[in-house]
Amino acid sequence: MGHFSISDLEQLSGIKAHTIRVWEQRYDLLKPVRTPTNIRLYSEEDLRRLLNVATLCGRGQRISQVARLSDEEINAAVLACCDDGHDYHLQVNALLAAMLGFDEILINHLFSEATARMGFEKMMLYIAYPLLQRIGLMWLAGAVNPAQEHMMSHLLRQKMLAATDALPGVPTSARRWLLFLPIDELHELALLFMNYALRLRGQHTLYLGQNMPTEELGVVCETYQPDAVVAVLTLQPERGRVAEFAQEVSAQCPGKLVVLYGPLARQEGLVLPPNCVAPVLMTDFLALVSTLEKEPVAA
């Protein structure tokens, strides 16, 4: 049974609704069902096929030719054509289609090819992060189920851990960063990427991960003596407690720069302690790191 409207398909694929209708009517590309009120609804298979067709047409192939291909031939063509390291939208479309089909082999291939062309950091910034944003939109539209989202998150987590592990060690005299997620916060991908980016830039990191009680930070800061403390706030703490959380972290780690990242740290009207900053984008965080690199490390 279909459950996506044509406006859902337009938003998720980037293809205009008028074009989708033309492709459907002229080439029998999609197979919608109709509600009792005559509204077209499209299936997950329709969305996956549209994403793949959009990828191929975006590379210059004619819709009349693509529409004649079987699903297996379309998948093979997508795999062969995603070799442009600058065509990020098409690569995201191909990954979304592979995710909808639980095609882990294709997902790994696409990520590996992109990393080989662009380097891991650029792959994460220009492909993985836009991909996660699109998955978020699909979640809101009911176009992705938890298993698909968990599979993609797990694969990205694996890749970030492996990429971080492959980096050379850094001296303990380097600038020190303490990274953690608050209690009940489980969304770890942004923090893992920050850890990778810092290590790549020769910074020393202590990664505490998920579910870190704020009251335990004092002992860690006293022993580790970080220059900066980083937390990612996606769903926790509760929206009304973010300012209080920032005060608690500042009190546990006095004199340290506190970096709060994520949607909860960007809410309008939020007042943070003077030693706290809240970068809007990941590129803003990386710019902050670059600025601090120019300053001498505290003795």
TrEMBL record:
**In this protein, which residues make up the domain named HTH merR-type?**
3-72
Keyword Glycoprotein in the entry? The reply is no
* One Pfam family this sequence matches: B12-binding_2
Q: What is this protein called?
A: MerR family transcriptional regulator
Q: Does the keyword Transcription regulation apply?
A: yes
The upper taxonomy is:
Bacteria, Pseudomonadati, Bacteroidota, Cytophagia, Cytophagales
Which InterPro entries has this protein been placed in?
Answer: Cbl-bd_cap, Cobalamin-bd_sf, DNA-bd_dom_put_sf, MerR-type_HTH_dom, MerR_fam, Meth_synthase_dom
Q: Which UniProt keywords apply?
A: DNA-binding, Repressor, Transcription, Transcription regulation
Q: Which organism is it from?
A: Hymenobacter antarcticus
The superkingdom listed in its UniProt entry is Bacteria
